[in-house]
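Standup notes
- HV: blocked on the assembly model, inputs below
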Amino acid sequence: MTAPYPRQRSNAWYLANWPYRLFMLRELSAVFLALYTVLLLLLVRKVHAGPAAFAGYVDTLQSPLLIAVHVVVMAFALLHSVTWFQAVPKGLPIRRGEEPVPPQLVIGANYVLLLAVTVIVVVVVRV
Amino acid sequence: MTNIATAEQTVTLEIARYRPGVDQRPTLQRYDVPYREEWVVLDALNYLKDRVDGSLSYRWSCRMGICGSCGMMVNGAAKLTCAAFLRDYLPGPIRIEPLSNFPVERDLVIVLDDFMEKLTAIKPWIIRDEEQPIEQGEYRQTPAQLADFKQYSMCINCMLCYAACPVYQHEEQFLGPAVLALAQRYNHDSRDQGNADRYELIWSDEGIWDCTFVGECSAVCPKHVDPAGAIQQAKVESTLGWYRSFIAPFGRR
């Protein structure tokens, strides 16, 4: 009679290796981006409330704690962008005839697009 | 001729042993094997079974990366042991365990019934509405049509991707990487007309939507099948199919 040893699961599976840890950080990045949208929405609200409220909010944002929050959010935003750009050719592979378009080209196109959008936003804000 | 039994340099293997009905849980047993630069882990296991301990159980067949039988965890990573060279794990010890996320039958042998059932569930064969008469010749394909699925047809069912998949570890009902990649292999085959027979299962919660895109299935795949890519592409197709069913509820998906 056989009695197989049952399959095992670990609640700490994501600590097992670096790809798993990176996956968890990638997923966690969404939480930090959501946090940042809250800060942005508050900003919109303060703009609506008038120049005094806006100036007060800008003052608040300059507190060491909120600067630290921004640094952390920025790090996660970068991780988010890099990892998802990296994933694009997996979900949307492009082929020309039989030959696949190199994934690096697809990823590169995303960075170019990001740069273009950033430039447009900066120009619009300056005007 | 070199006598391997008198070789000087040795490497230590820590091998998981489990005797059903006797052991409560697997234990590690240490063995010293002669070190050979050209030896893979499977060679060391064969040496042990032939000369040291005949009770050691493991699966293997072709020892050239085609049969997909010798998948095990080598130092915690899913590997074909016929392609894992001892020299890459020096100085050791090298830990050999059965593939993760499966029940253990004995020692390094896993129970693969779950995988087999899922494999047949997605109908991994060419389905035709109507067979073309033999007089009309073979079903022809352009190189571009072949390129659409060829990569997925390289799967050897070694199940390394299941051992690397944390989703499968936690959700046993998940169809898993290899099966979903094979579903793409047939759905994308221009000769196949069986998409309608497959999509309900593939597009279900147990199918592609259980996947959180960890991506390790593709990293461990010895045949570069890229199941993670296949699943993400199926997600795109499933989403488009959902929108199509919304616009034209009675149309073909």
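- HV (later): unblocked. The first helix of chain B runs from residue 41 to 51. The two ends of chain B are 65 Å apart (CA to CA).
- Next: hand off to the docking folks.
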